Amino acid sequence: MWFTALSALWLAATAWGAVDRGEDGNVRSIALRTHTLKQPYLDSDMSSRWYDFGGDTIVRTDSYIRLSSDRPSQNGWLFSRVPLTATNWEVEVEFKIHGKNQLFGDGFAMWLTKERGDMGPVFGHANNFEGLGIFFDTYKNNRPGVVFPYVMAMFGDGKTTYNKDNDGKETEFAGCSARGIRNANIPTKLKLTYFQDKSLKLELQYKTEDEWQLCFETTEPPAIPSVTYLGFSAETGELSDNHDIISIEAKNLYTTGGSATRPTPGKGSSKSRQKNKNKSGGSWTWFLFKIVLVALAVGGAYVGYTAWRANQKRSHRF
């Protein structure tokens, strides 16, 4: 019957809709178990296979990893044991900054650095680091015109110093204000996506659940060292807060088109991008077109066969 052919057409159209997912539709991911951390955090021997922690860090296996508690002069860290060597990656972290005080500080940081577990004055980590630091700064020292909490990124070359007195203004290459990220009513998350030499993007979730706010995106990312450790640290001074890591989910990103990099706006010829897009779309169109042809042929044959059988029965009846 024609129902068979129509069903095949509908399935083909559904498949085409699933494939056509826009510019980033060809990006796939593989979970990086070595850099993923979830409850209960610790193994049977009360240590983590993939992460080390130290300083004032507290691990509650049913709740959180607290880098610093809501008490003065706290300093804690959490770092991966093995380096992150993926060319393209995405790290999504659920965290929580909270406390009962009206005055609070100082904040926490996410690291992708050559060093690991080095304690110091930069949100609990050593200064003059080499690699990338993302700072969630909750206390304003001297940044006129900037709303805090403030999230900023800094690339360290091993020689440049982070200046706490002006909240790193001189060494910031990207950032955004994130009012409401502390004591939020929903799970707060960050998502850092990196394509080597192509793009670096930071997204935040703190206003509405499952709604990401773009903090920054650059098509000229810093040259992050090829071998870096993923880590987190936090500190408190006279003012304090709880800085918790709830979960870490890391992924290795790759493309299905045979290229290890992602096309980014503003780079390359628009004609070449359109050519590649048309080439990819054309191959899928031809593939689905052949499926439709086969479905129509089968459906037509079935209808013809049914009509022939009916005619034969009528002729035998008389």
Automatic annotation (TrEMBL):
Species this chain originates from: Anthostomella pinea
Top-level lineage group: Eukaryota
GO molecular function: D-mannose binding
Main localization category: membrane
One BP annotation, GO: endoplasmic reticulum to Golgi vesicle-mediated transport
Domain L-type lectin-like: 29-253
Signal peptide: 1-17
Entry keyword Transmembrane: yes
A GO CC annotation given for this chain: endoplasmic reticulum membrane
Pfam families: Lectin_leg-like
Cellular compartment(s): Membrane
Region Disordered, residue ranges: 257-280
InterPro entries per the UniProt record, alphabetical: ConA-like_dom_sf, Intracellular_Lectin-GPT, Lectin_leg
Protein name: Uu.00g060830.m01.CDS01
Keyword Signal: yes
UniProt keyword list: Membrane, Signal, Transmembrane, Transmembrane helix
Membrane topology: Single-pass type I membrane protein
Transmembrane segments: 284-308
PROSITE patterns xrefs: L_LECTIN_LIKE
